[in-house]
Design a protein that fits this description.
single chain; about 70 residues; mainly alpha; about 0% strand
């Protein structure tokens, strides 16, 4: 497979995992269940968001992806 396709697939999977963790934290907040702390899911969301940003910066630095030169 193409390296760019695998990179994009990893990014999409990480973003879906971030959304899943955010939804889990919302469910715990609404349900009021205190067995599992809500901060666990929110912390995972922050860690994976930082990982996505670092992966994007590395991909930009290595030339795997290129930014759009015109924003319109």
């Amino acid at each position: 497979m193409n390296t760019l396709f695998i990179f994009k697939l990893v990014l999409v999977l990480l973003l879906l995992f971030i959304i899943f963790n955010l939804g889990s934290a919302l469910f715990i907040m609404v349900k009021g269940d205190h067995q599992v702390p809500m901060s666990r899911y929110l912390g995972r969301r922050v860690i994976f968001s930082v990982l996505v940003i670092l992966l994007l910066l590395v991909a930009l630095g290595t030339g795997l992806i290129s930014p759009n030169p015109t924003p319109y």
